[in-house]
Amino acid sequence: MSTAPASASGAAPTRKAASAPASPEAGAPTGTAAALGPSFDGVAPVLPPATRPAPAVRIDGVSKRFGSGPVVLDDVSLEIQAGEFVCLLGASGCGKSTLLNLIAGLDQPTAGRIQTPDAGSAVMFQESALMPWLTARRNVELALRLRGVPRADRRDKALSLLDAVNLADAADKRPHELSGGMRQRVALARALAQDRPVLLMDEPFAALDAITRDLLHEELERVWRATGRTIVFVTHNVREAARLGQRVVLMGSRPGRVVQEWRIAKTAGRRIESPEVAALSVEITDQLRKEIRRNAA
Ligand SMILES: Nc1ncnc2c1ncn2[C@@H]1O[C@H](COP(=O)(O)OP(=O)(O)O)[C@@H](O)[C@H]1O
Ligand SMILES: [Mg+2]
Predict the structure, then answer these.
(1) Ligand 1 centroid from CA 110, angstroms
(2) Would you state the pLDDT for residue 68?
(3) Which of 78, 113, 255, 278 has its CA 20 to 30 A from that of 268?
(4) What band does 12 get if pLDDT is binned at 50, 70 and 90?
(5) What is the CATH number that goes with domain 59-120+196-297?
């Protein structure tokens, strides 16, 4: 369902609420019997059951108001498949954090429903929020302890998680001895230590310099591919969304809602300076500007 013009970036734009399944639609008689021709006339092809995998996160007609204030989110619907990497993109104040908090179960919608896996989600914010008196390893061990991992296993597990985010050498350092990028790596290791199927990230790299951010994009992508986590990544940075997402969901403001989304077929090997990332960024920025102008009118 593509209602927008052909994409210069090769990403497929889809309009609001276009939540196509990750797997091909079941039901079309394209099986062997159909292909074998007349001698199989009258033999009904065995069709796969018309099921699609349950989405990891289903947001269904969600609206949100705080008290008697304005409507912050208006009728947002979105399905996120297990293992998908979705970027929620929008101008500041459009309701991205509000939506993420609702997915995390930290707040309740005014209307609509949100379904998430029973095992819940881990959340990572712009500030690492590490315990300042604990070393990097101990910060990760704390999350393991809260998850019920036996004491004897925690040290090794914490070290391997820190290794996964390229921070094994800094395991014994306290947060004040670490750079901003290193602290966010610890926060990522800690989020992974919670071992939840969904990872919710609210502008986690917004305070980092561009070079560190590029590195962390690579780390996060590697972690995503290795762990199969479902990631919902909030950002106001168009380039970051185009660099990271398998899907980029653009939100409009006042009230916050889903305006358009793009699916990126080939995500391997992308870098922030890749031509396809630049082309997609231009396309998304054009759409974002239209939204901002529409709001200003
Ligand atoms: N707890 C709250 N109480 C009242 N208003 C809120 C609260 N949280 C967010 N808002 C309002 O909701 C709107 C969206 O905020 P937010 O979700 O933080 O936007 P974003 O993350 O996209 O920058 C803003 O106008 C903000 O002031
Ligand atoms: Mg926010």
Answers:
(1) 14
(2) 94
(3) 78
(4) confident
(5) 3.40.50.300
pLDDT, average across residues 34-40? 40
Task: Assess whether pLDDT exceeds 70 at residue 26.
Answer: no
Give me the mean pLDDT over the 96-109 stretch: 96
Ligand 1 pocket, residue 253 CB under 6 Å: no
Taking the centre of ligand 1 as the mean of its atom positions, its distance from the CA of residue 275, in whole angstroms, is: 34
Backbone angles phi, psi at 171, to 5 degrees: -60, -30
DSSP string, the chain: ---SPPPTTS-EEEETT----SSPPS----SHHHHH-GGGTT----PPPS--PPPSEEEEEEEEE-TTS-EEEEEEEEEE-TT-EEEEE--TTSSHHHHHHHHHTSS--SEEEEE--TT-EEEE-SS----TTS-HHHHHHHHHHHHT--HHHHHHHHHHHHHHTT-GGGTT--GGGS-HHHHHHHHHHHHHHT--SEEEEESTTTTS-HHHHHHHHHHHHHHHHHH--EEEEEES-HHHHHHH-SEEEEEETTTBEEEEEEE-S--TT--TT-HHHHHHHHHHHHHHHHHHHHHH-
Q: Is the pLDDT of residue 6 over 80?
A: no
Is the beta carbon of 90 within 6 A of some atom in ligand 1? yes
**Residue ranges per structural domain of the chain:** 59-120+196-297, 131-195
Starting from the CA of residue 96, give the closest ligand. Answer: 1
- pLDDT tens digits for range 196-215: 999 999 999 999 999 999 99
Q: Whose CA is nearest to atom 18 of ligand 1?
A: 97
Q: Mean pLDDT throughout 152-160?
A: 96
Q: Residue 66: CB within 6 Å of ligand 1?
A: yes
pLDDT band of 293, cuts 50, 70, 90: confident
